[in-house]
Amino acid sequence: MPLFSASASGNGNNTGGAEEKPLNLPFDPPPLLRVDPVAVLVGHEDRVWCVSWCPTANVLASSSADKTVKLWSCLHHAKAVDEQHQQYPQKGLSWECIHTLAGEHSRTVRHISWSPSGEYIACASFDRTATVWKRASDDLNRFDFELEAILDGHESEVKCVAWLTDSTLATCSRDRTVWVWDRVDVGEFECAGVLAGHAQDVKACAWIPPIDGGAKPLLLSCSYDNTVKVWAESHRRDDWHCFQTLTRHDETVWSVAVQPVEQSIETLRAEEEEEGGEAQPACQPIICCCSDDKSVTFWKRNAEGKFHVIVTATGFAERSIYTVGWAPSNCGAIVACGSGDNKITLLGLYQSRGYNEVHVTVLAELPSAHEADVNSVAFCSIVKGALDDNKEVVNDNNNNSSSSSSGLLLASGGDDNMVRVWRVARA
Amino acid sequence: MTELVNPNPTVFRDALQHQPQRSAEELLQEQDESFRDPIDSLEVFHHIRSIRDPEHPNTLEELKVVEPELIRVDEVKQTVRVQFTPTVPHCSMTTLIGLCISLKLQRSLPRGTKVDVYVTPGSHEQEEQVNKQLNDKERVAAALENKNLLNVVESCLNEFE
Question: Does ipTM top 0.90?
């Protein structure tokens, strides 16, 4: 049953020639999902604040109040399965810490972000700096990182960091500002903009990459002042201004996430049916954010580029919702939420045929995902490899057929010092 | 020397003579180890009653900043909600006192217990702002990484000799 629905084009006022871009949503309610535990990653000595997957390999990074970042990977044991391993649910496989980034931050590492190529990791710390780490080896299978740069400028704790490209990233802080940084040389970054306007602590930031060839990216930030701000760069380079302020939440907005958009789900189906057709216009990404007010809101842009709410999800969390993360686009419009009631919830979005309405529904719930608050959730963007792993494991046990999303991995981190890995499949 | 935020607090000495008592049945249950010992408001009160006021040589109990009637425990949800009453409406120590209560309970109660600390409604001029700060766990965590502030908090948590 949909939790709530709202007209997607309530503000449909198409002055100007631009058309509103379509949403990448299925027309049918998504199937219910099952979430199975895969691994518990023990090693951090304090709460885990953030988990983040490498975009190009099945490597997971986690950051903690213990001032470190750990990299985890699933290793195949080359030797024959011995008696001990037979007790593990994942025979022959185990997740292990393969590298630790330590010694550089003197306080909590609050957030981590991989650059699009997987070659860099940026860390945001309560020590008022962000750091950039570069892979030390050209070997694609080695994940050793060394410090490349320290981004210094914020006046208080840095809460979040986000890459746009391998050369551009944003940081935000309790000092109420968002900074944009550009790489000007190896190991050297320059401040390209200080974005001021939030009345309070800025909790997170995220980029909306350009959709069209000529468009520019937008930057989102969410804050303790209960708002989300949309920042745009003017025609003059490095001149950032607040394009819009989204006011909907009654409490702190903790996280903002941009839907990955590659190609429309329905377009893919249409192409399969018609075996080729005219090119469809690019879809626009949906934006979602979560709040202390226990709700998740979803936003899209109208023809004029202004954001408005298309649907709100409430009633599934009993305490603050700290984190939201989108599943890869080929898995459908699925969002994972982590909340202070120790719970992970998976939401699914779909649209009505012809009525321009968007609906949201709960696809899965893990009431006790962690033994304390869930601070971060993230889907692995590589489904193919994980699917292969899953087939191997499944074939060892029985011959269950795998559905298209059975290889989807989800990671979470919590106040119980644990990083957990889950497999998401159809129920 | 800076001027005291509240130079003349009211001290309730009688508090020491009228400590809350558990019923005989409750005392018997405590002896029975097979009986699961739920958290209740008296236990929570016991943990925080002896926290020292940052400015005065008195406990929060003596100043009636904390009282057992202002504590709510939801055993099923493992949630504890504490209201505390600053001694004066403009008290700038209010956030600090709230931090002390929060940290003390974090250390004393079972892991995973949710602790919500609020100013008693109507008792402080900046009630909303203080409540929002005290219940932002990220800001609380960051504040407690500040060594100077943590030292002040620790000194308030230490018992009088």
Answer: no
